[in-house]
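Hello,

Following up on my earlier ticket. Below are the four sequence lines again, exactly as submitted.
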Amino acid sequence: MKSANSLLYQRIAQNLIDDIGKGVWRVGDQLPSEEQLASRYKVSRFTIRSALNRIQSKGMISRRRRLGTTVQNERPLETMVQEVRTVDELFQYPEGTRLKVLRASNFSTDVSVANFLGCAVGSKWTKIETIRLSQNRSPVCLTEIYVPEAYKSVKDHIGKDSTPAFKLLERHFQVVAQEINAEISAGNITSARSKQLHVEPDSASLILIRRYRNAAGELLEVSTSEHPASRFTYSFNLNYRR
Amino acid sequence: MKSANSLLYQRIAQNLIDDIGKGVWRVGDQLPSEEQLASRYKVSRFTIRSALNRIQSKGMISRRRRLGTTVQNERPLETMVQEVRTVDELFQYPEGTRLKVLRASNFSTDVSVANFLGCAVGSKWTKIETIRLSQNRSPVCLTEIYVPEAYKSVKDHIGKDSTPAFKLLERHFQVVAQEINAEISAGNITSARSKQLHVEPDSASLILIRRYRNAAGELLEVSTSEHPASRFTYSFNLNYRR
DNA sequence: AAGTGGTCTAGACCACAGG
DNA sequence: CTGTGGTCTAGACCACTTC
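Thanks for your patience. The regenerated structure is below:
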């Protein structure tokens, strides 16, 4: 193996990456077995596996028993990663703010609501209308929480502490949120809502929609939050993995 | 070791995780060396290392030569991850849209601008004003791109194709963007800008600010984009790693 | 049945960071 | 110098999946 200095498995990994880039193996091709690579490079299978781990972590190969190692991409995937270590970081509401339940109601989804929620038409849901208040009792945002009617009773737990509603679902029902989808858009606050938020009617707002799904992809909760433009900015960081 | 069925290193990892949770080892404590753990569990050091890898991937321990293995957290870090596989996913502008340069100007940062950009007061920057147009030439958003004056000439490359400005910086100057910070807020479109965007003055808008930094944390570019509320929604997914 | 990757053993030497 | 984790060897058996 060429130049010394670096580590064996790193050099072998780079060598294989280069080969894939040069088209020695193309996407869909199968790499030689670990045993064959070991004898080809005159190293142990352990070292080959370390090299393949490295290549796999770059998204270039997949490995399956019996099927072998298959090329997935010609070049390392350039992935940007946002890591959110705590739920608070995702929600970004300062400590001390509280959610207060205003109203709860049941309904059957019609076409437009089903489309908005991303669920089947005619399923039974509960809508929980809430307002988030800061420590000095001034309104931060209006939040509507939609849950399947089976989870209706979460409303009695909301506002007791700062636990997000989907965590309450996990605690009180046997469900686990696996994926969250967020949509951010701008809008204008309706007259009725502007009074609750203490702003001018029709003033600009930032709207966050969050959809929570379990591992099977089933909807657990949808929430919409409307913030007066001046009171909220959503911020996040992304890092390149190179 | 308790119940069979699962794999050796997984059971050992779970055992150690439980011990840490029970307070057998506390945050800051040093775990026994790999050698000691191997003899304690009567397995090879390889198996112990597999178990420790697993625990490390959960953010519970750090490992350093000579210093040993140190407990970092009492419980597995519940991390949410957003992966953006391509730059396009981050920008989310449909294909066919183009950036058109309107104007470029140099300036020295005063206090307020330096604060907004997140750079030193008095440094020299270039502001490139652009508009993004859809295929049918209707305006999508107004984008202002700020770069250190040394990179001023990027303006001649913007709009030639759909490459984002920070990628152009990487191509034409010896810099690499490592981290992107994004801020999303709502606002109102000023009268002058509303004409360019073909909307009513003072109507609601979604504003995206992106800051690009190299590995040393130095600012490479800051861009602000203002979108009429009806024309843009920012959407992303987060997944739990359990 | 056969061949692949996944797990595991029992060693060895090296690189790094304290004392 | 010493002890730690990091790398590496040369084997072995197992689990899975396709034939």
